[in-house]
Specification:
about 25% strand, 8 helices, alpha/beta, Rossmann fold
Length: about 220
């Protein structure tokens, strides 16, 4: 029995790969991601969106887990599987539950995050959960979303961090360096962003170990 795990970056994929889990990276290419998930969904026991996310609610800090009661995309509210979410809660007892927002472009600034919090009520935001939720609903599969905060609500990502992801989920180091050459003043903020992201990745690894086989799915023993 296999769970389909959906994330954004190749580094997340390396953390999450294991027996009984098929990991797909989005890399910001939503059309490709959706086609890939549709192709792989047959025979899966469930779909989970898992990886790092941006914080929208104040008080959420890098490394903190967020579990979705539902995923919002535009006016659509896509529910998560209650049994799977409850089991995730028992395995990640420090996690915060709420609505997670799915978007098609990076939410980079503190002002944008505050505006989205006010409009949607979502506590965190990522670029894959809404795609995964749509595919799960289309195929009648259980769906869950478990994310780790990487950048808090009050943080604005520096320009170099916004251009650093390739469409395959790998890091575009040349794009980062070009951005730094043009705007070298952003280096301290980029270093801080990297350190906080590292906290997120370490927490993702710890959480993965706590979830065990099937990433907490009640359909996988």
């Amino acid at each position: 029995m296999t769970i389909l795990a959906v994330t954004g970056l190749k580094r997340e994929r390396r953390i999450l790969a294991g027996p009984g889990v098929e990991v797909v990276t989005g890399g910001g290419d939503h059309a490709r991601l959706e086609m890939t998930l549709d192709r792989l969904a047959a025979g899966m026991q469930g779909i989970i969106s898992i990886g790092i996310a941006g914080g929208l609610a104040r008080g959420l800090r890098p490394g903190q887990w967020v579990l979705a009661n539902a995923v919002r995309h535009g006016d659509d509210m896509l529910p998560t599987d209650p049994e799977w979410t409850e089991r995730l809660t028992s395995l990640l007892p420090q996690a915060t539950r709420g609505v997670v927002l799915g978007v098609d472009a990076i939410v980079a600034t503190a002002a944008q995050k505050a505006a989205l919090l006010g409009v949607t009520g979502a506590i965190a935001v990522d670029m894959e959960s809404h795609v995964a939720a749509r595919v799960a609903a289309r195929h009648g599969l259980p769906f869950a979303a478990a994310r780790v905060i990487s950048d808090a609500a009050h943080r604005t990502l520096p320009p170099a961090a916004r251009v650093g992801m390739r469409r395959d989920g790998s890091v575009d180091l040349r794009a980062v360096l070009r951005s730094l050459l043009v705007e070298p003043w952003q280096l301290p903020a980029l270093i801080r962003t990297g350190l906080e992201a590292e906290r997120g990745f370490r927490s993702l690894l710890r959480g993965y170990r706590s979830l065990g086989a099937g990433l907490g799915s009640p359909n996988v023993s």
